[in-house]
Design a protein that fits this description.
alpha/beta; 4-stranded mixed sheet; 3 helices; 23% helix
């Protein structure tokens, strides 16, 4: 059995988030239609962007509307990259918020933390500078 994994981030503005993640992931979306944008990272992993109002039609009223959680850290995307300094700066130029600069962390990776427009925490990491 082959398992495929997709992480879907709920976003307030699909187009703005698509443009940001194109810069961050250094690739164009593999799917970009109203209601869903996907980036294929490899044969097994995708990152999706779904508008808050779209998922709210599925999950409310049993769960809160996603807009009630904007800016509250709930998970982290940990992206191993080769050119961390370049991507970190490009992400900031594209509108992300720097949370913590690129620093050697206790676990041995150099990691810089940013957040996107919806407050999703993104760690950019590399084994060496």
């Amino acid at each position: 059995m082959t398992t495929q994994l997709e992480f879907i981030l709920y976003v307030s503005n699909q187009e703005k988030s698509r443009d940001f993640y194109q810069i961050l992931l250094q690739q164009k979306p593999s799917l970009d239609v109203s209601g869903m944008t996907e980036f294929t990272l490899n044969d097994f992993v995708k990152i999706g962007l779904m508008p808050n109002d779209g998922i709210a039609k599925v999950i409310t009223p049993k769960l809160p509307h996603p807009t009630s959680g904007i800016g509250i850290p709930r998970c982290e995307l940990y992206l191993q990259v080769d050119n961390i300094e370049t991507i970190f700066e490009e992400a900031k130029q594209a509108g992300s918020t720097e949370i913590s600069p690129i620093t050697l962390r206790d676990w041995g990776d150099y990691v810089g933390y940013i957040s996107d427009f919806d407050g999703h925490v993104i760690a950019l990491a590399t084994k060496k500078l």
